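Re: that backbone. Tokens:
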């Protein structure tokens, strides 16, 4: 206790000094009049001062979160304070606060005990001794808590999880948060991995994949500030609501302007489509609202989404495109009017010789405009104005007709050809119908004829785009993050690779959460095979930080029994209530749901989710709750914003999100079939503190009842 008191006093004194320093710097900056003139250099200086002012104001509220006492070999023990942003010392001495991304700060995360410690700095490996790792909680400039996670002088465990457990026990508000003060060693390795690698990360539910990816972006921007910019980085997320849910982490880390998009939205923009291809209203519902046996009757290779996402399909497109060059230039001379002629051989020489280095669509464009210029030159040779007029008229018509003889070098048009080209058709393209499963060929042909596109066609269309067009500088990326990557296809990643410099990817996902059977990958090898071994790195995150031990053990059991999975989560030692299994059949259903909700929210929890099996059930339940006066929000996949509070949603839309309490409804064999274990796993792992499973008569066999509490309740009272 005495130790704690003196540590608190020591930190309080240090905080006071730091705040005084920051205030002094702020006052000095504020005393410089804001420049509003037109001088460019002055404007840049003003911008930089404004940034400094903003950063100091933020630092003033929470200057740092950690302290590390370290002595570099041969040097004395020095306390370093680590914050979300570095704070320099105007007098030019050591910085007052070190940025969490700085090399020295990496020790704060990677040190797990032992007699020596080292970190990689630009000047080489720095070795020394760690004496103390201390977490300091400061809110609005007030010191709230001091907790040592390592103290060389004490006899406790090497590095304790106590502070982490305290942080994890806090209730969450609407949005994902930064974790700078408690990044774990295995997460830090990913955050600080080198830029030019395709990192593939398999992480169990709640292992911090999304959070780590966002911190990695902040790190890359700090570490490679000369080479990369925020505007040229992108996060691909499953939907707009998820983007909204994660929207506060990057600004909190002082990073702005990173692009965030779904693959469809991005692809549609590149292709210049009016709107992203959609599989029609309710596509997800059609897939998830059917029984799982109906879903499983189609073999993998017959699922068009999986086929069109495969590298096999890419190879088919390559063959299809192989002779695109040879079939481009129409095999005839061009004659704008009688007696004047441009030979096929000469046009071919322009196309295959002079413009060889351009992509094929650009070559076509160049050749056609050169023909246009040639016509204009020839017209000038006309003997009279009348002849010139007549030739001009003729030439215009013939030029148009000639251009039409060239194949349309546009991704959608070529793609349509792929599903039209049958033997004997005179398109110049080969017949690929034999290589594509007949059912997929037929179905695609039918909807493409109606000028429709599906999401599953996007990778191929984008690939065609890159084969025939130049990828312009403003389309390229310095780094790409793919979240929920188990739902991405190898072909999608291969296409993206064409837009990314140096294969700089962070690809994160969890195979155990692969509930979109009709797309995505079954193994990470499918992704790593796209890169050379030296270009890729693989990490596995097995510790789960989101849920209590009880919830994780319960969810693990579902995976073990349901899919025999070996990717099980290891919980952090944070104990909570047992998972509650409650019978809620027939006319008891609604009342039981209300009861569970009332109980779950009777404490201090701020967010709760009611997860139904289908969208239809979510809508009905939402209506019921609204009728009962409960302020609930329906999540139906159409909205771009996440409101927090009480959410009602079908389980498949809950991926990526988390809630203090989760109540799953209708968890019985009539709703969850033998192949729905992963779906149930996703739902259960959304809960931070409390999990309820309300069920009918027969529980699916993959649910273990031994460690759960069976609840019998009465007197429902809604919040
Ligand atoms: N080192 C950490 N310190 C504190 N909290 C952490 C840490 N790592 C992760 N968390 C918390 O764990 C929760 C899960 O994180 P996140 O959503 O990033 O995980 P995920 O692996 O993407 O999950 P899922 O795949 O289940 O959607 C979040 O509340 C996050 O703040």
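Recovered sequence:
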């Amino acid at each position: 206790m005495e130790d704690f008191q003196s540590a608190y006093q020591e930190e309080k004194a240090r905080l006071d000094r730091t705040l005084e320093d920051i205030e002094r710097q702020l006052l000095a900056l504020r005393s410089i009049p804001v420049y509003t003139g037109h001088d460019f250099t002055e404007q840049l200086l003003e911008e930089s001062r404004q940034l400094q002012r903003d950063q100091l104001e933020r630092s003033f509220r929470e200057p740092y979160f950690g302290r590390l006492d370290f002595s570099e070999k041969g040097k004395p023990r020095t306390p370093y304070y680590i914050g979300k942003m570095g704070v320099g010392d105007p007098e030019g001495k050591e910085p007052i606060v070190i940025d969490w991304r700085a090399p020295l700060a990496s020790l704060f995360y990677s040190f797990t005990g032992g007699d020596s410690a080292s970190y990689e700095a630009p000047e080489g490996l720095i070795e020394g001794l760690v004496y103390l790792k201390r977490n300091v909680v400061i809110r609005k400039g007030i010191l709230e808590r001091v907790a040592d996670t390592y103290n060389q002088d004490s006899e406790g465990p090497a590095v304790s999880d106590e502070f982490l457990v305290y942080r994890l026990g806090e209730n969450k508000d609407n949005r994902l948060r930064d974790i700078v003060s408690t990044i774990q060693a295995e997460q830090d390795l990913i955050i600080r991995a080198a830029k030019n690698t395709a990192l593939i990360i398999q992480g169990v539910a709640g292992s911090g994949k999304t959070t780590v990816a966002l911190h990695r972006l902040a790190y890359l921007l700090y570490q490679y500030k000369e080479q990369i910019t925020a505007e040229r980085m992108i996060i691909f997320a499953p939907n707009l609501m998820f983007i909204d849910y994660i929207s506060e982490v990057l600004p909190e880390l002082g990073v702005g302007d990173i692009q965030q998009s779904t693959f469809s939205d991005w692809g549609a923009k590149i292709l210049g489509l009016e709107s992203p291809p959609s599989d029609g209203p309710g596509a997800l519902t059609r897939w998830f609202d059917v029984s799982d046996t109906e879903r499983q009757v189609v073999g993998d290779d017959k699922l068009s989404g999986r086929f069109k996402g495969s590298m096999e399909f890419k190879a088919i497109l390559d063959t299809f495109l192989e002779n695109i060059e040879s079939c481009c230039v129409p095999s005839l001379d061009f004659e704008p009017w009688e007696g004047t002629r441009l030979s096929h051989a000469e046009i071919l020489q322009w196309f295959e010789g002079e413009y060889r280095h351009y992509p094929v669509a650009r070559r076509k464009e160049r050749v056609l405009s050169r023909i246009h210029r040639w016509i204009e030159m020839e017209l000038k040779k006309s003997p009279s104005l009348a002849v010139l007029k007549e030739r001009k008229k003729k030439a215009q018509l013939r030029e148009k007709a000639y251009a039409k003889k060239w194949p349309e070098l546009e991704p959608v048009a070529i793609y349509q050809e792929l599903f039209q080209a049958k033997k004997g058709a005179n398109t110049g393209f080969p017949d690929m119908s034999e290589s594509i499963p007949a059912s997929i060929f037929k179905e695609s042909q039918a909807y493409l004829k109606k000028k429709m596109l599906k999401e599953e066609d996007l990778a191929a269309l984008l690939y065609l785009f890159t084969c025939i067009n130049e990828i312009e500088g403003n389309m390229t990326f310095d780094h790409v993050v793919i979240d929920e990557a188990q739902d991405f296809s190898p072909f999608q990643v291969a296409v993206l690779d064409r837009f990314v410099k140096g294969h700089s990817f962070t690809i994160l996902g969890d195979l155990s959460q692969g509930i979109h059977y009709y797309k995505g990958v079954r193994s990470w090898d499918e992704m790593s095979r796209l890169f050379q071994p030296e270009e890729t790195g693989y990490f596995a995150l097995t510790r789960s930080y989101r849920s209590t031990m009880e919830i994780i053990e319960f969810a693990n059991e579902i995976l073990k029994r349901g899919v025999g999975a070996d990717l099980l989560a290891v919980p952090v030692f944070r104990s909570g209530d047992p998972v509650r299994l409650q019978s809620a059949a027939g006319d008891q259903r609604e009342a039981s749901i209300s009861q569970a909700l009332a109980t779950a929210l009777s404490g201090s929890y701020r967010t709760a989710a009611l997860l139904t099996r289908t969208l239809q059930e979510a809508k009905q339940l939402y209506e019921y709750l609204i009728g009962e006066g409960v302020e609930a929000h329906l999540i139906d996949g159409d909205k771009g914003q996440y409101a927090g509070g009480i959410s009602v949603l079908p389980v498949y839309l809950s991926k990526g999100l988390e809630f203090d309490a989760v109540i799953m409804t209708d968890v019985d064999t009539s709703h969850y079939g033998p192949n729905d274990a992963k779906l149930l796993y996703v739902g259960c792992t959304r809960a931070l503190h409390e999990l309820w499973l309300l069920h009918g008569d027969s529980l699916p066999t993959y649910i273990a009842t031994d460690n759960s509490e069976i609840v019998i309740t009465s007197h429902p009272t809604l919040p």
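DSSP finds 25 helices and 23 strands in the chain. The longest strand covers residues 124-139.
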